[in-house]
Design goal:
The chain has 358 residues and is of the alpha/beta class. It has 2 domains: 36-113 and 292-355, Periplasmic binding protein-like II (D-Maltodextrin-Binding Protein, domain 2); 115-270, 3-Layer(aba) Sandwich (D-Maltodextrin-Binding Protein, domain 2), CATH 3.40.190.10. The protein is built from 13 helices and 14 strands. The strands form 3 sheets. The protein has an 8-stranded mixed β-sheet with strand order 2-1-3-11-4-8-6-7. A 3-stranded mixed β-sheet has the order 5-9-10. Helix 12 (305-319) runs antiparallel to helix 13. The chain is elongated. The termini are far apart.
Length: 358
């Protein structure tokens, strides 16, 4: 009888403890204690790598839980400006006018480099297509409307180009990939610069809109005779072809990691103090023309010291240890000279006026 009483008493005590935890907001033993949660959102361009980083970082820092939502650079910029997230992400630097809208100083932290590529769905074409800058601009302006147009043939004399209309696919959401692509078009086409311009969202002359790199990739993959622009890894993962693009030196360049590295090398010495830089249409015989840094946006002065410290520690890991995961996912690690400059930026981040990195 005594044993039965002890068993009943133990059951009652456990039940009471669980009720107490639920009422007091205490975490149960499976949730852990002292967990710091960070929320980020923005660019789809680096999302495959960022998800890999978060998975790996959680393994070595289980008390830091970071969620990243791939919603497009425009959304990331808006949410960090509104301070509804802990960090934003964009493939194109925030411009001077937009920076004035932020409530306090924001830092641009380059994380890796990548390539925006032209991908297409032409089953009969067995070799990578080649495009000159003026041809790309005129396809997206709607001036070249057929795949067998003489100007496309001039770049691709042996390709089995179909006698079919071209269907353009572009981003429908605010997009850093769009900003990179249109930044390039502004540099190579006066007509594009005058009529359309550049930005995370533009008024497209024609075409089908799709959300995210994922959406554009899916639309191209399922629709014959389409052409669109996406980040390299999305085309690679979906086994879609990518085009060679003629660079400023007149060479048709494949979007390889070495070609992106070459584009970055051309601008590294001239990178400004705030690290905001465009490397599209870079000089150099081996430079790929649609290369770009991608950035994480963080406030220089953090409101919460604990979360700020966790964020800075993660970013330090990302630009050091995290770089080893870049190439396997078709991104280019930061040049060492840029890493040194990022270190300075991270050391400048404070909470209550005190540096978060020792």
């Amino acid at each position: 009888m005594w044993h039965a009483f002890k068993g009943a008493l133990a059951t009652v005590l456990v039940a009471a403890l669980l009720v107490f935890q639920a009422c007091s907001g205490q975490r149960g033993p499976t949730e852990g204690s002292g967990v710091v949660r960070l929320q980020g959102a923005g660019a789809t361009f680096p999302n495959p790598l960022y998800q890999k980083w978060l998975s790996e970082y959680t393994k070595i820092n289980p008390n830091v839980r970071i969620d990243y939502q791939s919603i497009g650079s425009g959304g990331g910029i808006k949410q960090i400006e509104a301070r509804t997230i802990d960090f934003g992400a964009t493939d194109i630097p925030v411009d001077d006018q937009e920076l004035r809208n932020f409530p306090r100083e924001i830092l641009h932290i380059p994380t890796v480099l990548g390539a925006v590529v032209l991908t297409y769905n032409l089953p009969e074409v067995k070799e990578p297509l080649r495009f000159s800058p003026d041809v790309i601009a005129d396809i997206f302006l709607g001036k070249i409307r057929r795949w067998d147009d003489a100007r496309i043939k001039a770049d691709n004399p042996t390709a089995a180009l179909p006698a079919a209309d071209i269907t353009v696919v572009h981003r429908s959401d605010g997009s850093g990939t769009t900003a990179v692509f249109t930044d390039y078009l502004v540099k190579v086409s006066p007509e594009w610069k005058e009529k359309v311009g550049t930005g995370t969202s533009v008024k497209w002359p024609l075409g089908l809109g799709a959300k995210g790199n994922e959406g554009v990739t899916g639309q191209v993959k399922q629709t014959p005779n389409t052409i669109g622009y996406v980040e390299l890894v999305y085309a690679m993962q979906n086994k879609l072809p990518v085009a060679l693009i003629k660079n400023r030196s007149g060479n048709y360049i494949e979007p390889t990691l070495d070609a992106v590295t070459a584009a970055a090398a051309e601008s590294a010495a001239n990178m400004p103090a705030d690290l905001r830089v465009s490397i599209t249409d870079a000089a150099g015989a081996d430079s790929y023309p649609l290369a770009s840094y991608t950035y994480i946006l963080v406030y220089k002065e953090q409101e919460d010291a604990t979360k700020g410290k966790a964020l800075v520690d993660f970013l330090w890991w990302a630009v050091h240890d995290g770089q080893r995961f870049a190439r396997e996912l078709q991104y280019v690690p930061l040049p060492e000279s840029v890493v040194r400059r990022v270190e300075e930026k991270l050391r400048s981040i404070t909470a209550g006026g005190k540096p978060l990195l020792s």
